[in-house]
């Protein structure tokens, strides 16, 4: 992996998916050198659908969507945000509920007002997802469909981290993965939402920026505006 000369400003995108061409162009137009440095990997668990009788499917990450092959397409679906909604719709689901604020907490809060006491909800999630919100509903079937694994930085990446001006983190898992190297980082964190922001503030006193809308496009725009 090539990194920038010391005279340039670097931004690290630490998510598992690469930036789109337009997202990368937005950052480069602000004079930033963009590097994709994934901090975590996700793997499907291949766990089977735990029940055939349920009324709602809850999905809080688009990473879970490839695991939903055997889920009936006529089930009512609650999605955490726009990207997850789009991923679900691409494979034939119709999303009935999406919160205005793209967080699991907001999603379950709204579900608690529409799910009937006798209805069953299947929560398709990653192994590190917050399960406290499930307590708001009467009948929730827990289905762990993917697991998250952090990775160690290479020696070159550790050295390059000292020159990073903007660090984009999309999950508490990514924050945990980079925590051992924080003595090398002195830039600004860009967290995609309040949950990730809290994880950052637990380990760092450096500035943290969070977009008003918890989407990748909004996060990229936030970085671009700061460096333009």
Description:
It catalyses: hydroxymethylbilane = uroporphyrinogen III + H2O. Residues 25-221 form the Tetrapyrrole biosynthesis uroporphyrinogen III synthase domain. Pfam families: HEM4. It comes from Exiguobacterium alkaliphilum. Catalyzes cyclization of the linear tetrapyrrole, hydroxymethylbilane, to the macrocyclic uroporphyrinogen III. The protein has 228 residues and is an alpha/beta fold. The chain has 2 domains: 9-39 and 151-227, 3-Layer(aba) Sandwich (Rossmann fold), CATH 3.40.50; 44-148, Rossmann fold (3-Layer(aba) Sandwich). It contains 7 helices and 11 strands. Strands 3-8-7-4-5-6 form a 6-stranded mixed beta sheet. Strands 2-1-9-10-11 form a 5-stranded parallel beta sheet, with helices on both faces. Strand 1, helix 1 and strand 2 form a beta-alpha-beta unit. The longest helix has 12 residues, at 216-227. Mean pLDDT is 93; it is low at 1-7.
Morphology call: elongated
- How much is the radius of gyration in Å? 19 Å
- Tally of helical runs: 7
- Tell how many strands the DSSP assignment holds: 11
User: How are helices and strands ordered from N to C?
Assistant: EHEEEEHEHEEHEHEHEH
Largest sheet: 6 strands, mixed
CATH topology of the largest domain: Rossmann fold
Which structural category do the helix and sheet elements fall into?
alpha/beta
Strand neighbour order, sheet with most strands: 3-8-7-4-5-6
| Total discrete domains | 2
Per CATH, which architecture of the largest domain? Answer: 3-Layer(aba) Sandwich
Low-confidence region ranges: 1-7
The CATH class label of the largest domain is Alpha Beta
EC number: 4.2.1.75
Protein name: Uroporphyrinogen-III synthase
InterPro entries: 4pyrrol_syn_uPrphyn_synt_sf, 4pyrrol_synth_uPrphyn_synth, UROS/Hem4
Keywords: Lyase, Porphyrin biosynthesis
